[in-house]
Predict the structure.
Amino acid sequence: MNPVTYSTFGADANVKLLFGNIGTVISGPIQLFLLGAGLYLALRVYRQLGMLGRLPPFDIALLGGAFLYAGVVIACVAALVRNNLSMVTVERALTWPGDYISGVLLLEAIFLRRSTAEMGWGYVSKVWGAFVAGIFLASFCNLLNLLTACGIFGWIQTSFVWYLWYPVSAAFALAPAYQWEAMRTAQARMAKEVDELELSTS
């Protein structure tokens, strides 16, 4: 489906590798960093409003698992560098921060979800709940991929992970959709209140 593939430019193996590496970095650490920056801005708003929630033990355990995974990644990277320095390339090094950023993202999303927990399970709570689900599933998939690459599991045992990326994408798509619905609902309620106020004063 990519027309560049059938051109002379796209047929070059080095060009394919270059674009593949660029796409991996953009869809990995850069995308996660931008998402993390957006969630941080939302956290600042909730803190200014005095609505920042507290984390229960279950959430703390969940975050502990995420950062434990980041520690496993650090250990694997250190072993890779120590055993075969020639395998360390700029392209690979640029993708490594994605695993650590995932832990930070999970922390931000859980804080936001807990901050809106008292509102019930409305659209605003669903926004942050969708982010939590997407980030957690993505971290779980990355962990199993890492364990498979290290030879702890076989590809057949972890092949189900391929299908988990669909709900990950769905969760990240649902979050802004819920935000849009929350805005529409708020606007509709405001318009209704204004109409009722105008009727009562007329």
Q: What stands out?
A: The chain has a mean pLDDT of 79. The chain has one domain: 3-201. Residues 3-201 form one domain. The first helix runs from residue 8 to 11.
